[in-house]
Amino acid sequence: MRTRHLRSTMCLAAALASSGMLACGADTTAVAGGDVATVEVTPTSARLETGDHLTFNATVKDADGDELSGRRIFWDSEDSTVATVDDRGVVTAVAPGKSRIAASAEGKSALASVTVVPRAVGSVIVSPSAPRIEVGETVRLSAELRDADGHALGDRAVSWRSDRTTVATVDAKGTVHGVAPGSAVITATSEGKSGTATVTVAAVPVASVSVSPASATVSPEGEQQFTAVARSASGDVLSGRAVTWSSDHENVAVISSSGLAVGRNPGVAHVTATVEGKSATATLTVIVPKVASVTVTPASSTLGVGQNVQLAATVRDANGNTLAGHTVTWMTSNPLAATVSSTGLVRAVLPGSATITATSDGVSGTATVRVRATPPPKKEKSVGSVEVSPHRLNLKHKERRRLSVEVKDTDGATLDVDVEWSTSDARIATVSGTGEVTGVKKGKARITASAGGKSDGADVDVKK
Length: 464
Known about the structure:
Layout: H1 2-17, E1 38-42, E2 45-49, E3 53-55, E4 57-61, E5 74-77, E6 83-85, E7 90-93, E8 97-105, E9 108-117, E10 123-127, E11 132-134, E12 138-140, E13 142-146, E14 152-153, E15 159-162, E16 168-170, E17 175-178, E18 182-190, E19 193-202, E20 208-212, E21 215-218, E22 223-225, E23 227-231, E24 237-238, E25 244-247, E26 253-255, E27 260-263, E28 267-275, E29 278-286, E30 293-297, E31 300-304, E32 308-310, E33 312-316, E34 329-332, E35 338-340, E36 345-348, E37 352-360, E38 363-372, E39 383-389, E40 392-395, E41 400-402, E42 404-409, E43 420-423, E44 429-431, E45 436-439, E46 443-451, E47 454-462
Parallel strand pairs: 2-9, 11-19, 21-29, 31-38, 40-47
Antiparallel strand pairs: 1-4, 3-7, 5-8, 6-7, 8-9, 10-13, 12-17, 13-14, 15-18, 16-17, 18-19, 20-23, 22-27, 23-24, 25-28, 26-27, 28-29, 30-33, 32-36, 34-37, 35-36, 37-38, 39-42, 41-45, 43-46, 44-45, 46-47
C-alpha cells in the first residue's frame, strides 16, 4: 500500500504538471494490445453537495484511438479535505471547496474537477412549535435545519420574523418578547426555506386587588368614590382590567360600575371590587349626621292682613353640608299677628309682628314677619272701549306687523289692563300676546283684541 500511495502521488503530480509526461504507475506485466496513448476521465467536472458520492470513469486508448481493456487505473485527489476518491473512481464530497481528481494508467494521466458545496436546506423546524408566554416574558426559539434527506445541517444563517409585532417581537437570535395579549406567528427562514411557530401571549394574571379608601363614612344620599388597583404577583400595577363592583347591603348603600357609592339608609355596607376572580373589600358606613344649623328663608317678610308667605328651612351639618330627610317643626311667637303651618306657610292675621321658628334635632333658626293693616281695595273702573289700529293689514308670507290697542274706561280715561289677542284662522295669520301679527299663507283672517268684555279687531289680508 505504501508503494501504491507513493506511485499514486507521483501520478497526480505528473498529471498536474502535464498529461503527457512519462508513464506514471507503469505496470511491467505484459498485457494484450498496444501501449497506452491517452486517458480520458468522465465526467470532466462535477458539482457535489457535502456527503454526496459520484463515480468517475477512466477510458484508456492506444495511439489509434482504440480503447484498451484490462489496464490498471490509479486514482488520486488533489485535496482530500475537499474530496476523496477510491481505487474504483468513486469520489466522496467531504467539505466545501474545489479539488482535482487524477486518473493515471501506464504513465498517462487525465484530470477532472470537482466543486463541493454545502448541502441545500430542505426544511426548517422551529421549536417549541406553540409556546405560551405572558406579556413581558420571553421565550427562546430554535431553528433546526435539515437537508432533503432529513440530515441535520449546521452553520447556516437564519432570519426571524413576527407577523404581529404588536403582540410579539423576535430578535435575530430567535428570542420572542410578549408585547400584548394575542397570538403571533414566528417564522425562521434559511436559504429560502421556512418554518414557523405560533406564540400565544397571555395577559399577566391578576394576583391581588386593593380598594381605596379602605373605609369611608357618608350620610344618606351622600357619595363616595372608590378606586380599585390590580397587581401582578410581582406587585406591578396592571392597567386596563375590567372591575366589577358590588355592595352586600344595597338598602344601606349602592355602588355603580365606576365605583361611585351612594348612601341610602343608616348602617354598614361592604363594597367589593373584583378583577379576574380576585377581590378586595372596603367598608362604607352610612350615618345621619348631627344638625349644626337651621336657616329660615326669607329671613324677614312684611305682609298685609290676610296675606301669606311660604318659609323654607335649610338644615346643615357642621361642615355646611345640606342634610336631607330631617324633620322640621314650625312655631310662631305671636299667633295673634301671624300663624304658621307644619310646612312653614305663614298667614298674616292682625297688625303686629311675630318670630317664626324652625327646629330640627334641637337646633333652631328664625325669621321675622311683620303684619300691617291692609288699606281698602280701590274700586276698579269698568272697561268702556277697546280700539285696535290699524283696522286693516296687508302682509306677505312670514311678514310681521304689530297692532296697537288702547283700552278706556266708561269715563274715557285710558286703562292699563291686560289685553287678550286672538285670530280667526291661525292657518292664515297668527298673533302674539303683544299684538304682533305674522302672515302664514295666502288668505284672510280677523285679529281680535279683548279686555273687560269689550273687543275690537283688524282684518288681515295675507298675500303670496
